[in-house]
Amino acid sequence: MAIAPITGMLRKRFWLDVSCAIGLGVASGYGFWYGVHLKHLERQENFYIKLERERIAAASS
């Protein structure tokens, strides 16, 4: 009793695998950009704005 060889599996599922990989990659990229990166930039900008206001207040006093 011979088992039939598995042929064409890569070709059959190639486009599904590629589209899933691209979709998950783009979704992960957006998640990182809006969930992590922009929040970090906002904290950084707020720190530098506070620092600049303190410098201006110290210079005017």
From TrEMBL:
Species this chain originates from: Hypsizygus marmoreus
Bilayer disposition of the protein: Single-pass membrane protein
Name of the protein in question: Cytochrome c oxidase subunit 9, mitochondrial
Gene for this chain: COX9
Pathway: Energy metabolism; oxidative phosphorylation
Higher taxonomy: Eukaryota, Fungi, Dikarya, Basidiomycota, Agaricomycotina
GO cellular component, one term: mitochondrial inner membrane
Family: Belongs to the fungal cytochrome c oxidase subunit 7a family.
Keyword Chloroplast appears in the UniProt entry: no
UniProt KW Oxidoreductase keyword: yes
